[in-house]
Write a structure and sequence with these properties.
- The structure is a single chain.
- The chain is an alpha/beta fold and 264 residues long.
- It is built from ten helices and eight strands.
- It has a domain of 174 residues: Rossmann fold (3-Layer(aba) Sandwich).
- Strand 2, helix 4 and strand 3 form a beta-alpha-beta unit.
- Helix 8 crosses helix 10.
């Protein structure tokens, strides 16, 4: 579940501790990738916005001739290249703000995995609209954590409580505005949800939370120990051999970027 402190700017993703924790995030459901490929008739160019360590890029890259993977965090890109280990030399790992990046024409698929809320839609989307292929698709993804389990309500409530402990407000107006800011710039064709079961070590599940901006260990300091203890108390009764099983859920919004915003 994404955290929602209003003061987040995304700078935390340069933090090596956040980057190290990112590898513990759960993968996207396999069926999601099948659907993205089915939606994409052309396979020449893929653009992955806010690619992070390549959760989308590395799975999709073998299916495209050219891949542009963009992220403003050099630390994230270093991890992505380590995970790739040279398997996909046609990926151009690019450190840049998406809004400033020169874009090639004829983009067949544009993806943004849990990242679109960090971007400036009025600056970005007209450029995407000019670069996307005539039959190209833009896919915006949300959700890359536990979504259903016997302990999920208590887990979610613990997250909400800790946002307050850190001086934030759960789903504050600034956060909500950021989450939906791209919508007037996006012609939505459909919304689809993909799920999959995951078994993960409790330690890794908790560590994954520290890859999120609100819960970076650098920001939390000594309070991280209490945060971890509260989350562990929630899932410990359900753990077997130090692991828990749960369902992940990812929402796919697909369509096309607009050159001008939709006026209600």
């Amino acid at each position: 579940m994404a955290a929602t402190a209003a003061q987040n700017t995304g700078a935390e993703f340069e933090d090596e501790g956040v980057v190290a924790a990112y590898v513990h995030r759960t993968p996207y459901p396999p069926a999601l990738f099948d659907r993205l490929l089915a939606l994409t008739p052309g396979r020449d160019r893929l653009l992955d916005l806010g690619c992070g360590p390549g959760k989308l890029t590395l799975t999709l890259a073998p299916h495209f001739a050219e891949v542009l993977a963009v992220d403003p965090s050099a630390a994230m890109l270093r991890l992505a290249q380590t995970l790739d280990a040279g398997a996909n030399p046609h990926i151009a790992w690019t450190e840049a703000l998406a809004e400033d990046l020169p874009l090639p024409a004829g983009l067949d698929l544009i993806t943004a995995g849990a990242s679109i809320h960090w971007m400036d839609a009025p600056r970005l989307f007209p450029r995407l609209a000019a670069a996307i292929a005539s039959d190209g698709v833009m896919a915006i993804l949300g959700g890359d954590g536990p979504a259903d389990a016997p302990w999920i309500k208590a887990w979610d409530q613990t997250i909400v409580d800790w946002v307050g402990k850190l001086g934030g407000q759960w789903q504050d107006p600034a956060h909500t505005a950021r989450i939906i800011g791209h919508q007037p710039w996006f012609d939505l064709a459909a919304t689809e949800v993909f799920t999959a079961p995951v078994t993960q070590a409790v330690d890794d599940l908790i560590e994954a939370e520290h890859s999120r901006a609100t819960w970076s260990r650098a920001k939390m300091g000594a309070r991280a120990e209490g945060f971890d203890a509260d989350l562990r108390a929630v899932v410990a009764p359900y753990a077997r051999d130090g692991k828990v099983t749960f369902e992940i859920s990812c929402t796919l919004w697909w369509g096309r970027p607009r050159a001008t915003p939709l006026v209600a």
